[in-house]
Amino acid sequence: MSHQIVPLKTYVLVFVSLIGLTLLTTAVAFVDLGAVNTVVALVIAFSKMILVMLFFMHLRHSGGLVRIILLAGFFWMALLIALTMSDYRTRTWISPPDAWSITAPPTHP
Amino acid sequence: MPDVHAEHAQIDHTGLAHQFEDLDQQQDADTLGIWLFLVTEIMFFGGMFAAYAIFRWLYFAAFAGGSHILDIRLGAANTVVLLASSLTMALSVRSAQTGNRRALVVFLILTMILGGVFLGVKAYEYNQKFVEHIVPSLDWAPEGDVLARLAPGGLNHAQLYFFFYFAMTGLHALHMIIGMGLLFWLVLRARKGSFTPRYFAPVEVVGLYWHFVDIVWIFLFPLLYLIGGRY
Amino acid sequence: MQGLPFQPEQASTIARSVDQLYLFITAITFFFTILIFSIIFYFMIKYRRRSPDERPKAIEGSLPLEILWTAIPTLIVAVLFVWSSSLYFRNAQPPPGSMEIFVTGKQWMWKAEHPEGQREINELHVPLGRPVKLTMTSEDVIHDFFVPAFRVKKDVLPGRYTSLWFEATKLGTFHLFCAQYCGAFHAGMIGSVIVMEPDEYEQWLAGGVPGETMEAAGRKVFGQNGCGTCHVADGTGLGPSLLGVYGQQVPLSNGQSVVADDAYVRESLLIPGAKIVKGYKPIMPSFQGQLTEEQVLDLVAYIRSLGQEQTKPKEEGKK
Amino acid sequence: MSTATQAPRAQAPRNYLNADYGWRSWLFTLDHKRIALLYLVSVTLFFMIGGFFAVLMRIHLVEPQGALVQPETYNKLFTLHGVVMIFFFMIPAIPAVLGNFLVPLMIGARDLAFPKLNLLSWYIYLVGGIFTLYAALAGGVDTGWTFYTPYSSTYSNTQVTAVAVAVFITGFSSILTGLNFIVTIHKMRAPGLTWYRLPLFLWSIYATSIIMTLGTPVLAITIFLLALEHLFHVGIFSPALGGDPLLFQHLFWFYSHPAVYIMILPSMGVVSEIIACFARKRIFGYKVVGFSSVAIAVLGFLVWGHHMFVTGQSVYAGLIFSFLSFLVAIPSAIKVFNWTSTLYKGSISYEAPMLYALGFIGLFTMGGLTGMFLASLATDVHLNGTYFIVAHFHYIMVGGTVMGYLSGLHFWWPKISGRKYPNGWAALSAVIIFIGFNLTFFPQFILGYLGMPRRYAFYPAEFQVLNVMSSAGASILGVGYLIPLIYFFWSMRYGPVAEANPWGATGLEWQTSSPPPTENFAQTPIVTEEAYAYAAKEETSGA
Ligand code: HEA
Ligand code: HEA
Ligand code: CUA
Ligand SMILES: [Cu+2]
Q1: pTM here?
Q2: Which atom of ligand 2 is nearest the CA belonging to C181?
Q3: What are all long-range contacts of B23-30, with beta carbons under 8 Å and residues at least 24 apart?
Q4: Does C80 touch chain D (CB under 8 A)?
Q5: Which chains sit next to B, with 3 or more Cβ pairs under 8 A?
Q6: Share of residues in chain D with pLDDT > 90 (%)
C-alpha cells in the first residue's frame, strides 16, 4: 500500500464533519418525516461510513483489489437481506390461509 | 484476526517473514488479509442485520416503542466518543508513519481510554435495562410508564426488539474488548520500539479493525436508537 | 402398483401430471449419464496410451462447442423451469368450493377435525372425487404432512396456518407420513388417509362419536373464556362486535387495514397487541397458552360462522 | 524448523518430513506441508468416525422395525454422521489437506501468506472437533445436521449447545483457511505465473475460498443466535414471541447451500489436474472451466431457498429460487463436457488416480442431474424430505467429492510421502468403491420416489428389500475405503521411493523433489508457459 502521510488537518476536518453528521442525524430524529426518517438516518450513516473508510482507513490510497473485495462484502450482505425479504414480502400474495401475522403488511416501510 | 507478519522462525530485524520476497509484498498481503477479514465481519454482522431488518419491518410499532425507551442522548454521546477514538487511532497510525514513538504510545493509550469510556456508558445503559426490567427472558417485567410505551406494539414483539438490542450491542462490545486487548499489545510493542516508519503493519492493521468496529456502531446507533423518530 | 414398476400409486388428480414431469427428468438424467459414460469409455479405449512417450498435440478448445453445450442445458432447464413451475403453481391453490378439514400436528401424532365435528387421530377420512383443503398447524415443532400416493406435501408449522389440497381419485387406504424431522418418534408419526365413496363418507361423518360441530365447540369455548364480556353483538362492549367481521376489511388503529381471515383471527386471540382495531384500546388479553390449537381452530370456525350469517344477531357470546 | 539447508534437488537428502523430528516439530510447525499432514490425519479420523456412524445406521435399517438401536439413538446417529461428515470431514478435506499442501507449491511460493494463521486454523478445527466428540459422548445430539428450529432451540434436550459451539468454532477455521488462500494466490505467485497460467485446481480453490470467507460468517452468527435461543428461549426462531422458524432456515441455508459448493469445487479442481495429466492434454477450454468455477461460487449464493420449497416459504420466492437453482446447473454442465472432451485424442493411461477421477465425473453427473428433480418445484414437493434427497447428495458428496478427494490423494501421494503405493490395489479399490457406492445409494432414489421419508428410525415393511440392498452396498463400500487406508500406511514404510515427477505431470509442484524440502524450492521458479503444456516436452521449464 502506498504511504503518503495524511496531513493532520484532514483528519481533524473529517472528525469534525463526523461529529456534525452525528448531531444532524440525532436532530432529524425529532422531526416527523414519516417514512423518510429511516431513509435519512441510513443515508447519514452511510456517508459517515464512507468518510471513515476513505480517510481514517486510507481507502483512498489502497488498491482497486481492496475496493472490489469491500464492494463484494456489501453486495453479498445486500443479497442476503434482499432475497430473504423476497420471501416475507410475497408470502401474503397467495391463498390467505397461508398467511398470518408474520406476513402482515408492514405498518411502516 | 489474521495474525499478520507471523513472527516466523525466520523473521529478520526488519520484520520480514521468510515466506515473503520483500516488505512491500508482505505489507500488501497484510492489508489484503485484514480487509478480507473485515469483509467476513461484514457478513457476520450481516446475518444479524438481516434478521433485524425482517423483524423491524414486521413489528415496526414494537421496535419503535422499544427504541424510544433507549436514552438517545447517551447513544449520541457514545457515538461521539467512539468517533473520537477513531480519530486518535488514525493519529496513532500517522505517528507510526512519521516514526514518532512517544506520540504513537500516547495516541494508542488515548484510544484505549476512549474505548473504555464507551464501554462504561454501555454498561450503565445495560444496567438501566435491568432496573426497568426490560431484559428479554432474563428479567422481563416492564411496568408503569415503560409498559405503557411498549404495550401498543405488543410486549412480545418489544421483547424481540430488546433481544436484538442486546445481541447487537453485545457483539459490538465484544469486538471493542478484543480491540482494546490488541491496542494494549501494540502499546507494549511500541514502547519496545518495534515499529519503524518502514514497518508498522500491526498498528495499521489493528487500526483498520478498530475503525471497522466504529463503523458498526455508526449503523447500530440509528438502527437501535432512532427508529421511527422521537416526535 | 399400477403404471410403471417402482412407481408409487397415483391416487390423486395431480399425481399423474407430477409423474409425467418426473419421468421426463428421469429420461434427461439417463440420457446424459449414459451419454457421458459411453463417451468416456469410447475415448478410454480409442485413445489409450500406446507408447509411454507419445505426446498428443494440444487442443485449445472450441468456442462453437462451448456455446453448444451451454445452450443445450440452458434450453433444457428452461423447459423444466416453465413446466414444473406452472404445475406447482396450479397445485398450490385449492380450487374454490373445496371442502375443508383442519389438521393439527403434535409430537408425534396427527389430529384431524372435520367441520361437522368428527375428530380422528392418525387417520384422515376423505370422500372420493371431491377437492379437499387441509388447513394445518402444529402445537409444537415443525412437522410435515406427506401423502406419497397424492404427491402432496407441506410443512406444518407452529404458530401459523399452512394448507394443501388434493382430490382423491382412488378408493382405499394410503400412507400418511411426517416428512419433517420432529424428534424421537418422527418415524412413528405416520397414519393413513382413507378414501371413501362420498355417501359412505357422509355416513361415517354422521356415525361414530356424535361430536358437536366445530362451530358449536367454538361457541362453547367463546363462552368459557368470557369473550362475550367484551365482544357484545351490538358493539357496545369493550371490544368490537364480531358479527360480520370475518372476511371483511378491518380498519386498524395505525391507519392500515387487514382482511379478517383465519390467520388474523388467530393472531387476534394469541397476540392481540399485534393489530389493534381502530377505535379500541389494546386491552384484549392474550389467550396464548390458555387455548389449545384445536380450541383456536374451533373459535376460528365459530367467528367465521358469525361472519357469514349476518342474520343471526344477539347470538354472539350471550347465553 | 524452517532452517532447512537448501540442498540441490538432485539428491534431496533433507525434506520437510525429515527436516526435524519430535512431536513439537509437528504440533508447532508453521510449514504448510506439515500442517496439511496434520489435517490429513484428523480429517481421516473424522471420516472413520462418521463412516462408523453410517455403518451403524445401515445395519439398523436392515429391519423395518430397526435392528440395532432405539429411535432416539438412531436420530443421534444420523445427526452426528451428518455433522461430522460435513463440517469435520468434507469441508476441510480437500481445501485444508490438498489445498494446504499444494497451493504454495503450485504457485512457487515458500509458504502461505500467513503460516501462523494456518496453524491456528488447524487448532481451531481441532477444538471444534473435540467439542463434537465430547457432545457425542455426553449424550449426543438429535436435531439433524440442519438444526431446524424450534425443535433444536426449544424441544431437543440433547447436547445442542455443545454442537452449536463446535460448529461455530470450526467455522472460523475454514474462514481463516479461505482468507489465507485468497491472499496467497493474489500476492505470492511466482514471477510469470499469470492468472491464466494457474492450474485449474487453484482456480477452484480460489472460488472455494470466496465462499468460505463470505458464507461461513453467516453460519457463525446463525448458530450463535441458535445457541442464544436454546439457552435463553429468546424466541426469534420460535413463534412464541412472534419469531419465525423459517428465518433460521433462510440464514442456515444461505451458508449451507454455498457450502455444498465448498465441498464439490475443490474436487472439480483435482479432477481437472488429473484428467489433463493422464490424458497428457491441455484441459479443453481452460478459461471456460476456470470461470465456471467462479460462476458456480457466485450463483451458488443465490439458490438457498430451494431447500424450503415446502416449508411454507412464499410461492413466489420458491419460483425465484427454483429458477436460480437451474441456472447453477449450467456451469457444472460446462465443466463435465469440457472434461470429457479433454480425453478426445488424448493419450490415456489408467493409473488409479485416473480411475477415481473418471468415477467422479460419472457419479457427479448423475448426482447433479438428480438435483434437477429437486430444483423443479412440482417434483420437489413429492421428493422433499425423502430418501431421494439422501441419494442425491450422497451421489455428489460420496460419489463425487470423496472420489475426487481419493483421486487427488493417489495423485499427489508420491509427492506428499515420497513413496509409491501398489497401483493394482489402488485400481481395485477404485472399482470396489464404485460398485459398492452405486449399490448403496441407487436403491435410495427409488425408496425416495416411493415415498420413504428420511430420518426414519423404522419404516413400513414394503421398503425393506431396497433398504437391505443399500446396507449390503454400504458394507462393500466400507471395505473399498479400508483398502486404501491400508496400503497408504504400508507405502509410507515399504513403498518404493518416488521420483520427483512420477506421472510426468506439468505443474510446479512436480518440479521440486518428492517429498519437497521445507522451503519448497531451491530458488523461486520462473514460469514461462501455461499450466498444461503436455504436448510440448517431457518437462515444463521452471525452477
Ligand atoms: C457437494 C454437495 C452438493 C452439490 C454439488 C449439489 C448440487 C446441486 N443440488 Fe443439492 N443438496 C446437497 C448437496 C449438494 N447438492 C445436500 C447435502 C442436500 C440436502 C441437505 C439436507 O436437507 O440435508 C441437497 C439438497 C438439494 C435440494 C433440496 C431438496 C429438498 O430438500 O427438498 C435441491 C433443490 O433444488 C438441490 C439441488 C441441487 C442442484 C440443482 C445442484 C446443481 O449444482 C447440480 C449441477 C450439476 C449437474 C446438473 C450435472 C452435470 C451436468 C450435465 C452432465 C449436463 C446436463 C445438465 C442439464 C441438462 C441440466 N439439492
Ligand atoms: C460428506 C458427507 C457424507 C459422507 C461421506 C457420507 C457417507 C455415507 N453416508 Fe451419509 N449423510 C450425510 C453426509 C455424508 N454421508 C449427511 C449430511 C446426511 C444427512 C444427515 C441428516 O439427515 O441430518 C447423511 C445421511 C445419511 C443417511 C440417511 C439417514 C436418515 O436420513 O435416516 C444414510 C443412510 O443410509 C447415510 C449413509 C451413508 C453411508 C452408507 C456412507 C458411506 O459412504 C460411508 C462409508 C465409510 C465408511 C464405512 C468408513 C470407512 C471405515 C470403516 C468401514 C471402518 C469402520 C469404523 C470403525 C471400525 C471405527 N447417510
Ligand atoms: Cu412430525 Cu416428523
Ligand atoms: Cu442446496
Answers
A1: 0.90
A2: 22
A3: B23/B198, B23/B199, B25/D187, B25/D188, B26/B201, B27/A1, B27/B201, B28/A1, B28/D187, B29/B4, B29/D113, B29/D114, B29/D183, B29/D184, B29/D187, B29/D188, B30/B2, B30/B4, B30/B5, B30/B201, B30/B204, B30/B205
A4: yes
A5: A, C, D
A6: 74
